[in-house]
Request: fold
Amino acid sequence: MSRIQHTVRISILMALSLGPVAAQTATSRIVSAANSFLSTLDDKQRQSVLFAYDDEAQRKRWSNLPISIVPRAGLSMKELSPAQQTAAMALVSSALSPRGFEKVQQIMDGDEMLKSNAGNGPQNGRGGGGPPPGKGPDGPPPGGRGGRGGNRGPGGGGLMFGKDLYYLSILGTPSEKSPWLLQFGGHHLALNITIIGERDILTPTLTGAQPALYTLNGKTVRPLGPESDKAIALLNALDENQKKQAILSFRLADLVLGPGQDGKTIQPEGLKASSMNEKQRAMLLDVIAEWSGIVNESAAAARMAQLKAEINETWFAWSGPVTVAPGSNIAAYYRVQGPHLVIEYAPQQMGGDPSLHVHTMYRDPTNDYGRAPNAK
Amino acid sequence: MRLTPLAAAILLFAGMPAHAHRLDEYLQGTLLSIEKNRVDAQMTLVPGVAVFAMLIADIDTDGNGAISESEARLYAGQVLRDLSLSIDGRRLMPHLVSVQVPGIEEMREGRGEIRIEFAADLPAGGATRKLTLENHHQSRIAAYQVNCLVPRDPDMRVNAQNRNYSQSLYELEFTQAGARADSWSLSWFSASPEPLGLVALLLVARFVFVWRRRARPLKLRDGNAPFKMV
Reply:
């Protein structure tokens, strides 16, 4: 199914199933889409996709790694019929902004590209029908690694890449009042959207891309291109003194607060935005918006208002090359950190061009999974 | 041309079409947490696929394909011996709190994380302090990362973090309220405050003793006139 056909189907489904959209809030749209998706499933599938809201093992079962390396639980796209897939993607779409959903699709398309280029053999897989991930205390250890006990199979076998290897799961019951969590992810993607009334909290969320630059249907795609372009534009807008503060003198090989590092706040470093001018602060907010704007518009607006109010307490740090070829991604690490924000952009040195393999992390260490005391 | 084991391993794995995992480095991330009298550290070590073979003999020492608890502790001890931790230039002796080592297969596939937690007591010191961590573990293949968590104690404040390019050397400068503002301290004497009080008492006693001894000849020089305090 082409991207256009798929998008049209999702749009039609949403228009038909969600009723008078104009009268609905973002949360009611997401809840409607969730119930529409659940109504397409049989009992066994529902059992697979639904988890208790307090299932900590499932909550933390996400990673940048492929599902054959870190098994996920829930329902994969591969396990769904075309109609169910459409309903699943309509649910994901309902929780995101158009650009956020496009980014998710581009990450998945990139993984499909990786599958075509790299093959899908058991390169690092555990062989077909490997042990399922745990669903309780025997789940993944801190670090987001998949457990090996429990009774739900990931269904990934030894497969590494491909857009059908993305999983959807729901913790709790879709509700406009009570909290619940929508998870969608696989290789280079982990969306954790906690929905608490009208608040939709996107943290922690991981995005990544490999290849981070590819051609699809004659069009060049960079799933995380704006994250790269906006950051280097900000760096170039700094004066020499500001650059001295922003550019760290040491190498950063990977994410500091990647999977398994929930709720941790590291000491900020780099250049504080209070030392930037208005234009530079606006550029920094524009960088931040690449992550805060993944979620639907109303949630993104609330989050952006919070981050804008704290911009003077927000830091920007950079490590690595300070130049980039036109149309390419940066090969540098950068971090944006504020009182309620950590963003990391980390190119990966894994035997190839690091600008083509990127991991990013988006967190609110005070409110990952909506855990702030005032979040409920 | 002779290839080093590392170069050979990288060439071997470079032929693979795509890598979703760490390849030729041994990532060693450390998060430090400081309190007034203690530093805690969480190390996460991720061996790359291409360098795993160079490490496994140090971990699975009996080569039986499984890592026992004692082997895990031995390896953690080896990692700790390759670290140097000091405060204000004084060497600290970190002790192992816990170690978790994944299965060999997980590490071979580049997805295994070794987790080591260690801690060290901090002797009392001045208001401004410098903690230094040097990591030399597997330095030829290491990718070090060291960071400090924001202290939970509002009296503690991080002033600066300094590192060399590879982060094998890390210095943390911090301030703790309630400690002496200057660097002069009797902390070398003991980490506990009680003996300081004892030293102060002894100094006062000594002063009184000297003062009384100096006062006595005066009284004698006055002849028979009794010394009288008014």
Notes: Residues 18-22, 121-157 of chain A have pLDDT under 50 and may be disordered.
